[in-house]
Amino acid sequence: MIEFAPISLPTFLAEYWQKKPILFRNALPDFQTPLSPEELAGLSLEEEVESRIVLQHGAQDYQLRRGPFTEADYAALPEKNWTLLVQGCDRLVPEVADLLNDFDFLPRWRIDDIMISYATEGGNVGPHFDHYDVFLMQASGQRRWLLTHQDCHEDNYIQGVDLRLMEKFVVEDEMVLNPGDILYLPPKVGHHGIALDDQCMTFSIGYRSYRGQELWDSFGDHLSENAEFKTLYLDPELNAGLAPGEVTLAAAQQAKALFEQKLQQEATLHAWFARFATQLDQTASQMLPEPLTEEETPSLDAFIDALYAEVGLIRDSVCRFAFARIDHQVTLFINGSQWADFGVPAGFIELLANQSFLTQEMLEPWLDQPSVQALLFDLWQLQFLTFIE
Ligand code: SIN
Ligand code: CO
């Protein structure tokens, strides 16, 4: 877990999370970057990796280039003032995914991804604000951050630039981050980070942001997939002499009453939200592992023998596991689906959802139960869980 000194975790959760920025000095004292700038650049050559390069040519003159890049692209870059950004590095590099364990003080399903940037001296992506919470961790080199709460609205932007950058930026706070320092920013706080050297790498642990529309649409999809909402609409009390052409407010309120009835059903609401929270985005869905073929799958017994012999199991970094207590029953959710759990004990579902890896020691007390064996076998065949190397 990260070091919250001089405040504590409860203070962070109560007073800062989604409310105000805070800088944690030396939050991960032993942190060493698992990825070099060259390795990051290597990722940006890949077709399926989302990468960008931002160059600054003048005060409000920025250029955005989208990957995949080639070695020739890199050879042609100027010496200074550019940044490479690679999205979803936690899904690409297991050592980067390991870093997420340090953020388990928040629900894992709230995390979107880890984006990593590498910048040459002067490199920056311009002053901007985001709509999501983020921990900006300095991984190597130094970066100066400028912050503002002012003018963080859609109308304040530099015209003619492919990036959404703030035209007006009144600096309220300023700080230089060293390796291991973490700056937390809630949504809609203006920030502008300028690399101070050619070693500057920043890890952005970004959280998901949900707009009401997205939630509403997803809830509707859930109801129609489960054919759950068949209650019939009833007219309001009608009066003799009504205007046949009018849609009254009372008529609309009958629809509202119907919605409200549905929303009162907490088990439905809860199951939908757990599905929503574990849903993969399009990029992640395309990165799901290939299931084992029949020829590659040994018998259940051989699998269990291997489990006793191996170090443990690790969750594929693309997969999202979570559990929810619905109607007093612990229910498993994986990648946007309610999962058939073979009736495993509640404690095992919680373990599976809470831990990104399951060591031999954690598994041992459960392994003699046929339901646990069946569930692990299922998840291993899908390669959602693989043996720890
Ligand atoms: C960066 O790493 O340069 C930018 C991160 C951000 O502003 O969100
Ligand atoms: Co940002």
Explain this structure:
There is one protein chain. With about 400 residues, the protein is an alpha+beta fold. It folds into 3 domains: about 10-205, Cupin (Jelly Rolls, Sandwich), CATH 2.60.120; about 215-265, no CATH class; about 285-385, 50S ribosomal protein L16 arginine hydroxylase, Chain A, Domain 2 (Malonyl-Coenzyme A Acyl Carrier Protein, domain 2), CATH 3.40.366. It is built from 12 helices and 17 strands. Strands 1-9-6-11-5-4-2-3 form an 8-stranded antiparallel sheet, covered by helices on one side. A 3-stranded antiparallel sheet has the order 8-7-10, with no helix packed on it. Helix 5 (about 210-225) crosses helix 7 (about 265-280). The radius of gyration is 25 Å and the shape is globular. It binds succinic acid and cobalt (II) ion. Succinic acid binds near residues 125 and 134.
Q: What is the topology?
A:
Elements: H1 9-16, E1 22-24, H2 37-43, E2 51-58, E3 61-66, H3 71-75, E4 82-86, H4 94-98, E5 111-119, E6 134-140, E7 143-148, E8 173-177, E9 182-185, E10 190-195, E11 200-207, H5 212-225, H6 249-263, H7 266-278, H8 282-286, H9 300-309, E12 312-315, E13 321-326, E14 329-334, E15 337-338, H10 346-354, E16 357-359, H11 360-363, H12 370-381, E17 385-387
Antiparallel strand pairs: 1-9, 2-3, 2-4, 4-5, 5-11, 6-9, 6-11, 7-8, 7-10, 12-16, 12-17, 13-14, 14-15
Bound molecules: succinic acid (SIN) and cobalt (II) ion (CO).
